[in-house]
Design brief:
mainly alpha; 12 helices
């Protein structure tokens, strides 16, 4: 009886420790966003004080108005949205059939592709930027959004392929074999059986590619020159003066606006991912 009680106490203590660790992790992740929101609504007097407060005492929208007046935030957001959506859609369309082949037909080619995925993630940006710049210059894609889309597709495709390969391997082969026995062809099997079960993986991969392209800074800084072509991460640097002094209020307001699309998209798609996984389990 005592042994069972000790086990129960240890189990509850372990679960409490897990919850506390999770709470600490959430606080660690949420604090920067909370401070960003607080800074975006603070007037200049509160931003300059030596004793900052957690929340603005006199909230104001002047930082947002000043941010829109100083920089073309809306145009930059449209550029980022166009680039991110295009690169995510192309990466998913290319990675899905490639992942199916790699998962279902294992050979030296698939093993080589897997090795390429791992190795490609180890290359730093600085190492590839010069040859990449020369190639895009020859293709007349410097200072052009299609050139940036091409770069993002190439950069996100390996990881997208790796993610989708794992999802394809999780789909039982027996479902495809049963469909073949019932007379369904390969294309119909892929569309009717495999694709619906891969929907959560496709959505998750597209979300990864979108956020990567939306937040990317280095390639956009090198490849985009004129203000009308620049994306949101580049526009945010314009709130920092030549002496390195940041216009903190408008910068926080613009950064908050740049963060919202990713947060809203994740909140929206997270339910669809969970719903798709439950639907796939029921169909299976």
């Amino acid at each position: 009886m005592t042994t069972a009680r000790n086990r129960l106490i240890k189990r509850r203590a372990g679960r409490t420790g897990q919850y506390l660790a999770l709470l600490g992790y959430l606080v660690f992740l949420g604090f920067p966003l909370l401070w960003l929101v607080s800074t975006a609504f603070k007037p200049p007097r509160e931003l300059a004080t030596l004793h900052p407060t957690w929340w603005p005492e006199n909230p104001t929208l002047d930082n947002f108005r000043q941010a829109f007046d100083e920089q073309p935030l809306l145009h930059a957001a449209l550029n980022s949205l166009l680039v991110a959506l295009s690169s995510a859609a192309i990466a998913v369309l290319l990675a899905t059939p490639m992942a199916y082949v790699m998962a279902r037909h294992r050979s030296w080619l698939s093993r080589t592709a897997t090795g390429w995925v791992v190795v490609s993630q180890a290359f730093p940006f600085v190492l590839v930027i010069i040859p990449l710049f020369l190639i895009l210059k020859r293709l007349h894609l410097i200072n052009a959004l299609p050139g940036l889309v091409l770069v993002y597709v190439v950069w996100t495709l390996p990881f997208a392929l790796w993610m989708l390969t794992g999802y394809v391997r999780a789909v039982p082969r027996e479902l495809e074999e049963a469909a073949a026995v019932d007379g369904a062809g390969r294309f119909r099997t892929l569309v009717s059986i495999t694709a619906p079960l891969l929907a959560p993986g496709i959505v998750a991969t597209g979300l990864f590619a979108f956020i990567t392209a939306w937040n990317e800074f280095f390639f956009a800084l090198v490849l985009l020159k004129t203000p009308e072509k620049q994306t949101m991460p580049i526009i945010l640097t314009h709130f920092i003066g030549a002496e390195g002094v940041a216009d903190l209020g408008p910068l926080a307001a613009a950064a908050l606006l740049a963060t919202l699309p990713s947060l809203l998209l994740f909140a929206l798609i997270q339910r669809r991912i969970a719903g798709g996984m439950v639907a796939g389990a029921v169909k299976g």
